[in-house]
Structures are given as structure tokens and as C-alpha cells.
Amino acid sequence: MNCYSSLAIGDSIFVSLFIIKTIEMKTYLIQRNVPGAGKFTLADRRSLAQRSCQVLEEMGSDQIQWLHSYITSNNLWCIYEAQNEELVREHARRGDFPANFIHEVVGIFSPATAELAV
């Protein structure tokens, strides 16, 4: 099961469509309150990932994509790209995942930002 897009090098039509779809997507940080999440086994994580990927496949990768998630003791912090917040909520509903808080990411910065010319 594959829940992420891959880029076909040399396929200019696909590349153009990929760029257009990426521009339309917004990035979201989802806080999922899951008591004991920090104790998830690899099997637990695999099961959640499979369920998430199945729902994403049903919804269509041109509308919503899961990039990755971070695990803390009692939370999952998931990074998604989606056309809108409602799609993130729909994914959570279909997969029976909590989506306690959904934040649209408006920008990023990193140590490399310190080197940028203003």
C-alpha cells in the first residue's frame, strides 16, 4: 500500500500537474490526544499507518497527503498537506482517529534561516 506520491522524472506533464497540485495544498499540524502513544509498539504504529493510508487512498492523494508524524508520551503530532481543513477532519472521521486540534501552518523557519539575506 502506498499513501504518498512519487515523482516520475522526465514526465513533464506529470511534473506540471504535481506542481499545480502542490500549490493548491495547505500544510496542517494535527494534534491527536492519544494517552499512552509513547508506548506504541512498531506493530501498533504499523497498524495505524496502514489504516491511515487506506483512508487516504479512498479519499485521493490529489486532495490530501500524510507527510509524517511525531510521537510524544500522550500525543501524535501529524503533518498533512490538504486542500482544506475539512478534508483533514474527514480523514480523521473515516479512520476513527482523534483530531483534537488542527492548525494551518503559515510558514516555517530553521537554522538555515539565520543565513538568509533580508
Keywords:
single chain, 118 residues, alpha+beta, Alpha-Beta Plaits, four-stranded antiparallel beta sheet, 3 helices
Summed up:
With 118 residues, the protein is α+β, with helices and mostly antiparallel strands.
What does this structure look like?
With 118 residues, the protein is α+β, with helices and mostly antiparallel strands. Helix content is 36%, strand content 25%. A 4-stranded antiparallel sheet has the order 2-3-1-4. The protein has 3 helices and 4 strands. The chain is globular, with a radius of gyration of 16 Å. It has a domain at 26-106: Alpha-Beta Plaits, CATH 3.30.70.3090. It has helices spanning 12-24, 42-59, 85-95; strands spanning 26-33, 64-72, 75-82, 101-104.
Would you give the CATH topology of the domain at 26-106? Alpha-Beta Plaits
CATH superfamily of the domain at 26-106: ORF SCO4226, nickel-binding ferredoxin-like monomer
Distinct helical segment count: 3
Q: Quick one: CATH class of the domain at 26-106? A: Alpha Beta
**Radius of gyration over alpha carbons?**
16 Å
Largest sheet: 4 strands, antiparallel
Shape verdict: globular
List the helices and strands and how they pair.
Layout: H1 12-24, E1 26-33, H2 42-59, E2 64-72, E3 75-82, H3 85-95, E4 101-104
Antiparallel strand pairs: 1-3, 1-4, 2-3
